C-alpha cells in the first residue's frame, strides 16, 4: 500500500495516514441539512471528500463511509440560537418537516449522482436515531459531563482538559450563540457549553418532538454526528470530513461529547474542505441566494464540468466561483474530451504497454498521496495525452485515473463520437426516424415496426434506449 500523507486539522500538520486497524478506514462525513437544495459550495465539500474516499479505496483500503442527514436540531446559527432550519424550510413551502426532509434528501442524492459522487455505505437520518442520542446523553449525565438547566440538557465544557482542539477561538466565534439579535442563553454555566437536548426553547411550534428522560423535546445538532458515527464506525474513527465552517463549534463539540462518552481519543484525522465563495463572499443556503447543480444545467453546463472545476484546485484553498472561471474549466474539459475521442478512434487493437502505464501513473499517485493534491493530479492527466506511448495505453491510464477523479472523460468522449456519427445520417433517413418516433408516441407499434424495417432496408439501424434514439449505418 502506498504511503498517503494527509493534512490533519487537529494537529495542524501533514501526517502519514495510518488507520486504527490495518487495511481498514472508518470515515464519517457530516451530511446535508435538508431544508433546501444543496448549493454548489456544499457540493464542493462532497466532491473533494468523494475523491479522498475513492483514492483510499483504489489504494487498497476497505473503506466504511457513514453520513448523517440532518433533519432535526440544526438552528440558523451553528450554536444554540436562531430558528430551526427545518421548520423554516417547512414554513417556506407550506409542508411538513418530514415532507421537505424527504424531498431535499432525494434532491441531494440526485445532485450527487450527476456529479459522480458515490453514495456513502451508510446514510442515517438523525430522526431515526433518537433512542441512540438519549442513551449517549444519559451516559454523559451519569459521567458528570452534562447538566440540566432551564429544562434543557447542556454539555459542560469546563469538565474537559482541552476543548478548543482546532485552535484558539475568539470571543467573536464564541458569539455564534448570540447572533441574529438573540440574547445569550442564561442557562449555560460556561460560554462554550452547548445543548444536547432541548425541551424548552423559543419554538412553541416545534414540529418534531420525542419523549425523553428530560421531558418532550428534540436533540441538539452536534450529538447527531457523534452518535451516528460511534454506532456505525465504531469507537475509533479514522477520518472525519466536513467543510471548514464545521470546525467550530460543530466538530469541536462532536469531539467533546464523543471522547467524554468513550473515555479515550476518538477521531485521528480531520479533513476539512475550504469554502467555495463568490466574488461577493460566502455562498450560503440560509441567505436563500445560491447556485445549484440544476441551475448550472439550465445554463448548459455539464455537472461534471463543475466537478472538474473543483478538482483543478486544492481542497485546502478557498475557491472563487464565477461563470468566467467555470467557462475556462469548460473549455479545458471539452478539449480533454475531444482529445480522448481522438485516442479512441486511433486505439484499434494496440496492446497496452505496462511499463508506460506504470510510469504515467506514478505522478498521479504521488500527487494524490501528497494530501490529495487534485490540482497536480489533473496536471498528470494532461501529461498522459502528451506521452510517447500508444493510444490504448493512454486510454487505459485515463480510465484508471477516473476511478478516483470521476470526471467521465472517456464516457463523454464516446458520447461525442456517437453524436458526430448522428450528424452524418442523411436527411431522408432522419425523416423516417422522426415518423417512427411519432408512431411510437401514438402507440402505433405496427407502423413503428414498418418504419424500422424501411430504415433497415436503406442501410441504417435505429435503436431506442433511455439515453434516446441512436441511428447507425450498417457495417
Ligand atoms: P449544511 O447542509 O449547511 O449542513 O452543509 C453541508 C456541508 O457543506 C458541510 O460540510 C459544510 O461545512 C459544507 N459547506 C457549507 N458551505 C460551504 C461552502 N461555501 N463551500 C464549501 N463547503 C461548504
Ligand atoms: Zn456533523
Structure description:
With 475 residues, the chain is of the alpha/beta class. The chain has 3 domains: 5-273, Rossmann fold (3-Layer(aba) Sandwich), CATH 3.40.50.620; 298-416, Up-down Bundle (Four Helix Bundle (Hemerythrin (Met), subunit A)); 424-473. It contains 16 helices and 16 strands. It has helices spanning 40-58, 85-93, 97-114, 130-142, 171-174, 221-233, 247-262, 293-298, 303-311, 323-347, 354-369, 374-386, 391-405, 409-423, 427-441, 445-457, and strands at 5-8, 13-16, 24-29, 62-69, 122-125, 146-149, 152-155, 194-198, 218-219, 237-243, 267-273, 276-278, 281-282, 319-321, 460-465, 468-473. α7 links the parallel β10 and β11 (267-273). α9 (303-311) crosses α10, α10 crosses α14 (409-423) and α11 packs parallel to α13 (391-405). The longest helix has 25 residues, at 323-347. It binds adenosine monophosphate and zinc ion (ZN). Adenosine monophosphate (AMP) binds next to α1 and β10. Residues 30, 225, 250 line the site of zinc ion.
Quick summary of this structure?
By secondary structure, this protein is an alpha/beta fold.
Protein topology:
Blueprint: E1 5-8, E2 13-16, E3 24-29, H1 40-58, E4 62-69, H2 85-93, H3 97-114, E5 122-125, H4 130-142, E6 146-149, E7 152-155, H5 171-174, E8 194-198, E9 218-219, H6 221-233, E10 237-243, H7 247-262, E11 267-273, E12 276-278, E13 281-282, H8 293-298, H9 303-311, E14 319-321, H10 323-347, H11 354-369, H12 374-386, H13 391-405, H14 409-423, H15 427-441, H16 445-457, E15 460-465, E16 468-473
Parallel strand pairs: 3-4, 3-10, 4-5, 10-11, 12-14
Antiparallel strand pairs: 1-2, 6-7, 7-8, 8-9, 12-13, 15-16
Helix pairs in contact: 2-3, 4-6, 6-7, 9-10, 10-13, 10-14, 11-12, 11-13, 12-13, 15-16
This protein binds adenosine monophosphate (AMP) and zinc ion.
